[in-house]
């Protein structure tokens, strides 16, 4: 029996339990909330994610897994869903104790067994075939119910690629699907930090040349054996953390490629990737510019 679970990494002021089972899909190797049996958990701490569907899904899953009388302790930054937490939990029929701390709202509830609406929240936030997208995806996954404009730009400008390659930050597999249209591609590693993205990609990309890895690109081992890499690296709102992520992707791509191998990269126009590309690659060619995005082909 799992006794204590944790979802995400709450700030230390909330005293996250050290020995709890981690259940965040964004932490490779963690246990999936979905895999926990009903009523098998004594206490749960959830650092609630910012998306509404994703958050209600995580809360409903945690409540489902809790035993009656078990405690759910949830917090979120005020402007990242925290101010809606209490209402959302009350909508499940729970009595909620709310406090404010460190720009967060924290809610404590005890499972009664009479909660309502858990199944509906789980269905709305689960992996699903997205209408109009013709793909499987899940709320919380990057651009989960649409084709990202940056990836679309890259897909439109890339030539047919050849040999062994990887898609760093593959999401639910939109770009990889286009890459695999080239018959000269012999293998493609789809890699993402988000388990939900990797699971969706596995369903979307049914191709014997594809393999799937739930991993952090920054800590991948690089063998320098790939012919090509495509990537629409994480950027979010262009904060400094995101910029560093993109820079780490570029460096890792250079390590993973063989000499002469090529990286096809799309970045938000405001992100200054040029210096990092020039430092890690022999030749960097702008490959298009439009719609707020810049494309690059970089050769090792
Ligand atoms: C801009 S999105 C591109 C997704 C996909 N190519 C698409 O077009 O839908 C970047 C992806 O990188 C993933 N990601 C973020 N940090 C990562 C990391 N450290 N290692 C691997 N993937 C990461 C995100 O989960 C997200 O799916």
Automatic annotation (TrEMBL):
The keyword Transferase applies. The keyword Cytoplasm applies. PROSITE patterns: N6_MTASE. Residues 134-296 form the Methyltransferase small domain. InterPro entries: DNA_methylase_N6_adenine_CS (IPR002052), RsmC/RlmG (IPR046977), SAM-dependent_MTases_sf (IPR029063), Small_mtfrase_dom (IPR007848). GO terms for biological process: methylation; rRNA processing. GO terms for molecular function: N-methyltransferase activity; nucleic acid binding; S-adenosylmethionine-dependent methyltransferase activity. Keywords: Cytoplasm, Methyltransferase, rRNA processing, S-adenosyl-L-methionine, Transferase. PANTHER family: RIBOSOMAL RNA SMALL SUBUNIT METHYLTRANSFERASE C (PTHR47816). This is Methyltransferase.
């Amino acid at each position: 029996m799992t006794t204590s679970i944790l979802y995400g990494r709450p700030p230390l002021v909330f005293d996250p339990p050290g020995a709890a089972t981690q259940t965040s899909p964004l932490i490779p190797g963690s246990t999936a909330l979905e895999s926990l049996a009903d009523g098998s958990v004594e206490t749960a701490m959830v650092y609630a994610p910012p998306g509404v569907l994703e958050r209600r899904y995580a809360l409903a899953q945690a409540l489902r897994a809790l035993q009656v009388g078990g405690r759910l302790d949830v917090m979120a930054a005020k402007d990242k869903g925290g101010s809606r937490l209490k209402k959302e939990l009350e909508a499940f029929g729970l009595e909620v104790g709310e406090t404010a701390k460190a720009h967060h709202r924290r809610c404590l509830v005890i499972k009664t067994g009479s909660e309502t609406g858990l199944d509906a929240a789980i269905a709305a936030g689960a992996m699903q075939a997205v209408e109009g997208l013709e793909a499987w995806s899940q709320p919380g996954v990057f651009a989960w119910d649409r084709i990202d404009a940056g990836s679309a730009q890259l897909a439109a400008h890339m030539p047919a690629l050849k040999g062994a390659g990887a898609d760093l930050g593959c999401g639910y597999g939109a770009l990889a699907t286009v890459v695999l249209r080239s018959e000269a591609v012999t293998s493609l590693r789809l890699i993402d930090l988000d388990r939900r993205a990797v699971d969706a990609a596995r369903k979307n990309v049914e191709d014997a040349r594809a393999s799937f890895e739930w991993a952090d690109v920054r800590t991948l081992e690089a063998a320098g054996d790939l012919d090509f890499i495509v990537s629409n690296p994480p950027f979010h709102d262009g904060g400094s953390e995101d910029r560093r992520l993109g820079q780490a992707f570029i460096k890792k791509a250079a390590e993973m490629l063989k000499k002469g191998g090529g990286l096809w990269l799309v970045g938000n126009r405001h992100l200054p990737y040029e210096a990092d590309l020039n430092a890690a690659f022999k030749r960097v060619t702008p490959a298009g510019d439009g719609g707020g995005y810049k494309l690059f082909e970089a050769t090792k």
